[in-house]
Amino acid sequence: MKRFYVLLIAFSIGLTGFSQEKEHEGKFEQLGTDLPTPNSFRTGSGAPGKDYWQQQADYIIEVELDDEKQTITGSETITYHNNSPETLRYLWVQLDQNMRAKDSDTPKIRAGSISRDSIPAKFFQSGLGDTDYEGGYKIASVKDTNGKDLPHRINQTMMRVDIPRPLAPGQKYSFSIDWSYNINDRMLVGGRSGYEFFPKDGNYSYTIAQWFPRMAVYDDVNGWQNKQFLGRGEFALPFGDYKVKITVPADHIVASTGVLQNPKEVLTSEELKRFEEAKKAFDEPVIIVSQAEAEQKEASPNYRKKSTWEFHADDVRDFAFATSRKYIWDAMAVDIAGKKPLAMSFYPKEGNPLWEKESTHAVRKALITYSKYTIDYPYPVAISVHAASIGMEYPMICFNFGRPREDGTYSDNTKYRMIGVIIHEVGHNFFPMIINSDERQWTWMDEGLNTFVQYRTEQEQYENFPSRRGSAANIVPYMKGDKKFIRPIMTNSEQIVQFGNNAYAKPATALNILRETIMGPELFDYAFKEYARRWAFKHPTPADLFRTMEDASAVDLDWFWKGWFYSTDNVDMAIDNVKWFKLKNEKPGLEKNVKSTKIGGSDAQSGAENETNTDFSNGFEEIVLTDTDPRFYGEYKNRVDDAAIRQKFADKNFYEITFKNNGGLVMPIILEWEYKDGTKEIEKIPAEIWRMNEQETKKVFAKDKEVVNIVMDPHFETADTNVEDNVFPKKEVKSRFDKFKEKSGK
């Protein structure tokens, strides 16, 4: 029989860990120098410091869109406020349209090959970057407020403006830029903004963004943002106030960032009446421009008569608009803690009936759920505009795909993908339009966080929504893929290999696991909301998120950030072995189904300590609790009652489980115990169980009832990439993961 000292269980397991010290990978070491040193601008708690500052850029813009030539011509005055402690000798302006200029680096760095004998002509042409489109800004002038030319230097998508006198802290400087460019055909050359042409009626829909020269960010982390816009990494922009006048054909409807200042001048009396009704409609959208009215304008376009729409927007980091005579327009109010922003949709007839039925409701549901998890939506409008094959976001407005067939029918897949993209793009109002991370550097900080709250919205606002990203089960194929094609989440946008998985799905899944499995909803939600509160209308970095989540929850998560965000490890835990023990029963005649093992001397069975079981068929092993040797008491004078302890554990079942970590990513261990009487129990063990040995650990469990089945991660919460070794007894059964997918429909 085996002599088993309960007092030494933890000690023996600890020795196993210490013996592996040379192989210790440091998964539980603090991030330490991996994060920037706290200072008076950004504190060690993750909050803005007492000296935190950020710049401001205000714009006054007048722009005209030519619907016959598909061009934009504009003039803007920028007032730049230097709130930094530094004196600036020059200013940097972003020229994103230059990404499409003939001398752009974007097509030059685009890798490609001819790997087959036939290629669609469209893709061949666009892959070479050899279209007839002449893109890029034409900068007509850069002047000061007195009309004097300012020296400036254009470097690809950035323009340095040399100011006549250094701009001291606390000062502001105003200058103007006149410019124009040719609007791109998105079908032909792609792009986040541009136009779509409709051959049947000869009209256009314009979704216009990155359309004016915009100030780059200057901050305490990097100074001037100096990464060129190559097409993938998005934007880093300062907040400011906007006054914008948009001139378009008079029969156009304009959707825009901001609040319309002159509705009486640009809307018909009937449209104005419906617009006012929408501000009081909380249950269903009000149709402001109907499909019949839009079709009438399509049939007889008026290119000569113009109208100017004026919009104002305060405290936004960007400005976008959409315009077309084809637009149907509906709107409804949303109650957000007493504020009543308008949820609105603009779409051509090609989007109906799907858009009229679903779009504005999806906007509303997004505002409600995102406000719950972050801050109350602060802006006066939230707009969804229908555009083919795109999902793209700007303050208060976004452009979204989802088009029915020509006969108006559509599949569930089309409907859910459309709703999902609308929720996602509306959600970008929070990440990064309000919680203003640097998209050019860290795509995941807006896309990943946003996808996480998108998942929460889909699951909370819709019944049985088939979410593509967010659940642990859905990330498994990516996580177990070839590491050559995987990068850490903490990778710059331009170097990511699998963009959707890396920047959207994996961080969203990580946050969902952090909420559901590691922290619990209560702790997570409070900390996540605190991050949003701290950094609303500011410029957070990854360190600010990591530190705030720990600061507001009192949970040490450095191991989690290191594993999920800094490595390409995957979760692959296994139940390697299970041993069943009971205390030796001193009553005769009760030795049935007992596995006896002699220990010590020449009678020891070779390999007994390392024997691997596949089931419980060998029965239990007996252990003996001996009287405690006096030497284990040290200087203590009192004693435990050894007999009482034996009595306490006399009828217990003890299960020693050996766990293996084959994937490298440490995670909590979740066990489902199934007992002989048919009952089940879930038990969760924190990830720190791996702290002494990150490859293998053992733990002993005491159970009142006899166990017949043990399953690790029974509900697929940890993104374990091989769940077949998560069961005991070990059985040859149909894949647990396949059965889960069948049951859940994923």
TrEMBL record:
Coiled-coil ranges per UniProt: none
Residue ranges annotated for the Peptidase M1 membrane alanine aminopeptidase domain, each copy included: 370-564
Top EC category: hydrolase
Top-level taxon: Bacteria
Bias (Polar residues) ranges: 603-614
Cross-referenced CDD domains: M1_APN_like (cd09604)
Keywords associated with the record: Aminopeptidase, Hydrolase, Protease
InterPro entries registered for this protein in UniProt: Peptidase_M1_aminopeptidases, Peptidase_M1_dom, Peptidase_M4/M1_CTD_sf
EC number: 3.4.11.-
One function term, GO molecular function aspect: aminopeptidase activity
Region (Disordered) location: 29-50, 594-614
Pfam family of the protein (one): Peptidase_M1
Protein name: M1 family metallopeptidase
Annotated organism of origin: Splendidivirga corallicola
